[in-house]
């Protein structure tokens, strides 16, 4: 838990101090909890800091753990590179673990970064009520902190199941080493935080762009209720989001996603991770992580439009599988908006013509530095969540119009067959490459069966899944299929409760 213990110091420009105000004298020329957390500006800076880890999470670890761990994308091998990457283990469901812990770097990163958010929001939430500044501004900032803590624990619960639940700032080593809380215990707190955030946050039209809003908190809590199969509670929240008239589908599917510097937080966006191109350190580079390799500078430049394209080597990640390509119905406009094909001249795989994720391909100025935002919740998902919640309650007639609203934009008519399956399949193509698929497989109880079948197809026909001719899958592929990730070994060495 060392990361949790030190993250406040590392991430914010103040020092964690003793809570004994009567015995401790704080120098007025240095920053500490009592001297920093005073004004609206102080708390605004602190809340800004709580959003920061979301950029690293969605730039790196989460697309591997939530998308490439599913049947939507796979790992593209570069046989000249020769290394076995942590990403490869994630794609192959062969992450080494022992006693419920693992040394996988991306598991470690996502765990630590979500606890960064927890630590920062805990510091805010334990001090903000005593501060004296405008009550409306205070409610907004507190609501954002509650939203971020609820979201972080929701992600941790979905990824790991049981994790330690910190609700107070960590002041010492003993405080960092909490026992694991059960999923049920975590969800009680997640729901409490999300409900509180709903009571504090403003509408999107009254909020600064990019910050958590009432609609985002309602959608988050509805997502929690759907995972918990509390369908009527989810329905009530989702209908409130629809009735708010704060959101609409963009007329064209491809316009739902952020450009490099424009179209951010658009009318379909409920919540998205903010990136900005430039030298301030706010940029992303996830587009580059999703390219097959090795790829020449000229080929990179043709995709990115940068003025200084550079070759990229190593291993390719999040390459769309034949399975997701086959999942699109004939005439579905989303396929061409989501997937494009590129030719990699130095590839070792067949003719080097790969599918890549198109929805994040946007021209930008400099290599490895782009500003496209990452969607967390879009209004189309609100509609699909609502259709699912209604259908699960036997209200198929009410559910169908919400499903059809999404399908109509995609150029499709009414679905055929079982409505529940139609909604599930619609989520796959509508939300492809947005870090939803693995969570959907787990919450619907399909993960083990789907991934087992997926693995069998890869082992039977590896060349269809980007293996060069003559290269066979490793002997341990798809031998560790589990609904939850093992906890990071680096934390277990500091917490005897793991």
Automatic annotation (TrEMBL):
It is found in: Cell outer membrane. Gene3D superfamilies: 1.25.40.390. It comes from the Bacteria. InterPro entries: SusD-like_N, SusD_RagB_dom, TPR-like_helical_dom_sf. Residues 33-225 form the SusD-like N-terminal domain. Keywords: Cell outer membrane, Membrane, Signal. SUPFAM superfamilies: TPR-like (SSF48452). Residues 357-450 form the RagB/SusD domain. Belongs to the SusD family. This is RagB/SusD family nutrient uptake outer membrane protein. It comes from Zobellia barbeyronii. The lineage of its organism: Bacteria, Pseudomonadati, Bacteroidota, Flavobacteriia, Flavobacteriales.
């Amino acid at each position: 838990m060392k990361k949790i213990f030190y993250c406040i110091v590392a991430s914010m420009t103040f020092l964690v101090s003793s809570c004994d105000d009567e015995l401790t004298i704080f120098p007025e020329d240095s920053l500490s909890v009592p001297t920093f957390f005073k004004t609206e500006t102080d708390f605004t800076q602190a809340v800004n800091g709580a959003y920061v880890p979301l950029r690293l999470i969605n730039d790196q670890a989460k697309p591997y753990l939530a998308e490439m761990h599913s049947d939507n994308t796979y790992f593209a091998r570069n046989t000249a590179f020769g290394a076995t990457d942590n990403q490869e283990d994630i794609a192959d469901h062969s992450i080494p673990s022992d006693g419920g812990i693992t040394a996988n770097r991306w598991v470690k990163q996502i765990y630590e970064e979500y606890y960064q958010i927890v630590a920062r929001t805990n510091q805010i939430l334990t001090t903000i009520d005593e501060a004296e500044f405008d009550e409306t501004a205070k409610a907004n900032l507190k609501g954002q902190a509650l939203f971020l803590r609820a979201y972080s624990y929701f992600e941790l619960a979905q990824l790991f199941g049981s994790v330690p639940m910190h609700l107070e700032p960590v002041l010492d080593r003993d405080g960092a080493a909490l026992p694991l809380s059960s999923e049920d215990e975590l969800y009680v707190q997640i729901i409490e935080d999300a409900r509180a955030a709903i009571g504090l946050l403003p509408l999107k039209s009254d909020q600064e762009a990019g910050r958590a809003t009432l609609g985002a908190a309602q959608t988050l809590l509805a997502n929690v209720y759907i995972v918990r199969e509390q369908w009527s509670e989810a329905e009530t929240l989702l209908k409130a989001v629809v009735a708010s008239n704060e959101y609409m589908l963009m007329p064209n599917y491809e316009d739902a996603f952020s450009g490099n510097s424009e179209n951010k937080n658009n009318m379909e966006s409920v919540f998205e991770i903010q990136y900005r191109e430039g030298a301030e350190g706010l940029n992303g580079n996830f587009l580059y992580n999703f390219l097959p390799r090795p790829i020449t500078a000229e080929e990179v430049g043709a995709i990115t439009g940068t003025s200084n394209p550079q070759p990229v080597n190593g291993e390719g990640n999040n390459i769309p599988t034949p399975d997701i390509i086959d999942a699109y119905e004939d005439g579905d406009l989303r396929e061409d908006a989501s997937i494009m094909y590129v030719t990699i001249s130095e590839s070792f795989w067949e003719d080097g013509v790969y599918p890549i994720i198109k929805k994040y391909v946007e021209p930008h100025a400099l290599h490895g530095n782009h500003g496209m935002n990452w969607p967390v919740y879009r209004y189309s998902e609100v509609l699909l969540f609502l259709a699912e919640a209604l259908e699960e309650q036997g209200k198929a007639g009410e559910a169908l119009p919400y499903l059809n609203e999404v399908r109509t934009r995609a150029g499709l008519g009414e679905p055929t067959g079982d409505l529940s399956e139609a909604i599930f399949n619609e989520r796959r193509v509508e939300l492809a490459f947005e870090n939803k698929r693995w969570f959907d497989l787990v919450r619907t109880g399909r993960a083990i069966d789907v991934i087992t079948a997926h693995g069998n197809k890869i082992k039977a026909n590896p060349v269809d899944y980007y293996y060069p001719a003559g290269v066979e899958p490793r002997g341990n592929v798809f031998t560790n299929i589990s609904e939850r990730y093992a906890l990071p070994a680096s934390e277990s060495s500091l917490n005897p409760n793991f």
